[in-house]
Structures are given as structure tokens and as C-alpha cells.
Amino acid sequence: MPLQHITIPRGPIRLAADLHLPPGTDGSTPRPAVVLSPPGSSVKEQIGAEYARRLADRGIAALVFDPAHQGRSGGEPRDLEDPYRRGEDISYALDALDTTAGIDPRRIGVLGICAGGGYAVHTARTDHRIRAVGVVVPVDIGTAFRRGAPDGPVAALDAMADARSAENRAGHLTREKWLPDNAEEAAALGVDDIDTTQAIRYYRTRRGGSEYSTNRRLARGDSLLLGYDAFHLVDPLMTQPLQVVLAGRVGTTGSSEAGMRLWETAPNPVDLMVVDGAGHYEMYDEPTYVDAAVDRLAGFYSTHL
User: Which residues, 6+ apart, have CB-to-CB distance to 213 below 8 Å?
Assistant: First the structure.
């Protein structure tokens, strides 16, 4: 299957990207394409590649990239998870596809997974070059961070303000872990819920781990996440057709709740799929579940692109 390694200009930096093309692509017939928006902390060789390869095999070109400040993309400081810049990354990826030979710029969709689902929706509200929106186990990372603040989001923001001032005085940037680095560390911390355990099995082992995925995020970016609402103004602005894919097992990630909130809010919901038996992180790479999701997504994009 043709695979092109490309770089996407993004102001003063460059995004590292892979364009997965359907077999037999020769550029003579413009094809539809989908931009992948992967989970927080994920790089292009991980979850995005699982879906991009399968979409290409079903006749739809798919572009997956490393977010700015992460992976092999440029941007300083490293490990920044800025939800607004993540949305801009998607628009810069659309810029690249606008001028890519063999891609029809009038037939471009987006597919967001986990936190990338929220980023994809937030971008599609105002970038109507996106003609169709698909999400798999979508998460509004802002809601997730607010719910995860033990003493509430306001107290968390106050603590973050103090921490940033301390960083400035010390001249050192603090980084937080997305997950325990391994199962032993999780056990020592008393972390044993099934979703976190499955996340560690994916991200922190050879199964899905990547040397370019650091499992760290810049602490000062967390205040941006706490103030973020991925679905704000979806009702009046995101008129594109919407496909939602959810895991059948409702866990602790919030993706089932976020997916249903999106489904009930979006002006043009087309199809809701619940993958029986799947957990959130099993939707990342478990072939049975991913193939079922991509079959449904490919039909959706074929109809609406």
C-alpha cells in the first residue's frame, strides 16, 4: 500500500505526517481523504496508523500526523498538549491536502479518536472545508480534566498558577505523566481499574508503545485543558454529517457520555454505532473491533464525501 512521508508547514515549524494512499493510486483520479486526529499523547505510528491503513485499504486516503510540540513534529517547548493548537494542526493538515495531487479538496473529512475526537469536532465547527466528521470513543478532554480535579477545577487552576510562578523562578518546566510508566508502577500507586490497566498495556508495552511518545505532558498546559470545551457551539455551527462510534463497555474514560452528548447536540447526526464487547482502549488496535468500526466509517465517508 503506498505510504508517503510528508512534512506540513505550520508557521515557523513543520508537522511530521504520513499519507496513506489506497492501492493503485496514481494521481489521475482525485480521491476523498480523511485527516486523522489521534488521542492525547499519541503519535502517528500508533492509533492513527491503525485506522489510516484500514481506510486506505477501503479506498479512502488518510493523513495522520504528529501534533505540534510532540513526536517528530517541531515546536518548543516539547510535550505541550494545547487543545487549541491541536485544532489548528488539523486545519494545517487540510491546507496540505488542498494542494496534494490526487486528493479532491472538496471531499475531505476528519476522524478523531479519544481526545482527538473532541479536537476534530471543535475544528469542524469553524473549518467547513471538513465535509464529514467521524469520531471513535470521543472524549471532551476539558470535561475529563475538570472531573478529575480532586478539589474542583478552580482550586486546580489556583494551584497551577502558583506552580507556574514557581517554575518561572526556578527556570525549569515541569512535566506530568499521562499514565504510570508500567504495570508495576500502577500497582504501587494502587491503580487497578480496567481502563487504566488497558491503557498501560497499549501505550507502555511493545504492543503499542513508541519511542516518540514520551508519556509526558507539559504541566503548564493543563490550565488550557481545564478551560476547554470541545463541543462548545456545536449545535449552531457544526452542520456536517456526523458518525459516532462508541465502545460497548462503558468504562471510566468518559467517552460513552461524551459520545452521547455529541450525538444529541450535533445538528446533523447520521449514524451511531456501539461496538459490542469492546472497551475504550480495545478500540485502539483490537482487529475485530477496529475492523468493524472502519467498515462502518468507510461506508459513512463514501456516502458523504
Answer: 41, 42, 43, 46, 70, 71, 203
pLDDT over threshold 60, residue 1:
no
CB-based burial label for 12 (10 Å; 0-12, 13-18, 19+): exposed
Q: What are phi and psi of 71, to 5 degrees?
A: 55, -135
**The pTM is what?**
0.96
pLDDT at 26 over 90: no
CB 48 within 8 A of CB 34: no
Q: Which residues contact 175 (CB under 8 A, 6 or more apart)?
A: 79, 216, 217, 218, 219
pLDDT tens, residue by residue, 170-202: 999 999 999 999 999 999 999 999 999 999 999
CA distance between the termini of the chain: 22
- Which has the closest alpha carbon to 279: 263, 291, 290? 290
Instruction: Identify the CA nearest to 138 among candidates 269, 268, 238, 38.
Output: 38
Quick one: cell of 274? 456501539
